[in-house]
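Researcher: For the annotation table, I need structure tokens for TetR/AcrR family transcriptional regulator. Please keep the output clean. Sequence:
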Amino acid sequence: LTSLDVPDAERHAPAVVALLYGLALRRLATGDTTATGTADAVRLLLLGALPRP
């Protein structure tokens, strides 16, 4: 997050980790072998964390 210039990266890191763990758990539960939607989910989460121009 720091390399993406997200302000307060340390504050947002737990939410990103929780999102990734949740998506991984969902893939395990459903038997899905792809990571479809992971990039979109992270992008939407970061969109809320980044300052608006």
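Researcher: And a one-line annotation?
Model: The CA atoms of residues 3 and 15 lie 17 Å apart.
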